[in-house]
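To assess whether the prediction recovers the assembly geometry, we first specified each molecular entity separately, as shown.
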Amino acid sequence: MAIIVRLDVMLAKRKMTSRELAARIGIAEQNVSTLKSGRVRGVRFATLDAICQVLDCQPGDLLEYEAD
Amino acid sequence: MVLIMQDREFVDPEPLRILTRRFEIGFRVAFALTCAVAVAMVLALLASPDWIGGFLAEATGYPLEAPRLWQGAAFVGIALSVLAAHAAVFRAAGQVCRWLVQGLPARAAGAAQQLSRRLWWLLGLSILAHTASVLVATAHAGPGQRAVSLALGSSQITFAIAALIAAFLARAFVLGAALWQDHQEIV
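The predicted structure of the complete assembly is given in tokenized form:
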């Protein structure tokens, strides 16, 4: 897919683990891992909103478009 | 800081799950009651064939004062076949609910297809059972007094409608399964 998830980069920048993020936004750690790997069909705005709030970033910092 | 997302805009399937679980219990009870009635009928045939024969003949609409043993046995046989069909329908309906409670709509679709098939079967059997019952009830009568009857009443229409609804449900569950899959793959 042409959309690349940069969540792992943002987590590293904020020195936060997937587990901590999952706990703070209230979703399963497995879902965060799946999101990090980019193997998801979609992301809810609510999830994106919560991640951006916790990581203090913009959606563009988490998602990137790369032409195939 | 913890952001609770579950309480916001997501659909909570729990109330529906609880309701479906109750339906499943209801179908199990109906299945058990049907089996109990079948057992009671067999026991009644063994204990008092005249009474059960007369009772079922009256239910058919052709009351018999003194039904013969073979007539009582035939009535019970016909009634048992109809009860077995009902039991199979209740079981299939319970399966639909069971898979839904477990969050497996694709399997519920398969069970709904089976339920639809069984309802069509029940429809056919109810028509045949009535015809056979009338034949049995009037078999001993003299020439010109024997009857053949074809029942196409409200219960047959109900079975047909139920079967159509079950067939529709099967298709709806297939779509529901795809939507559920989508829902699970969206974080």
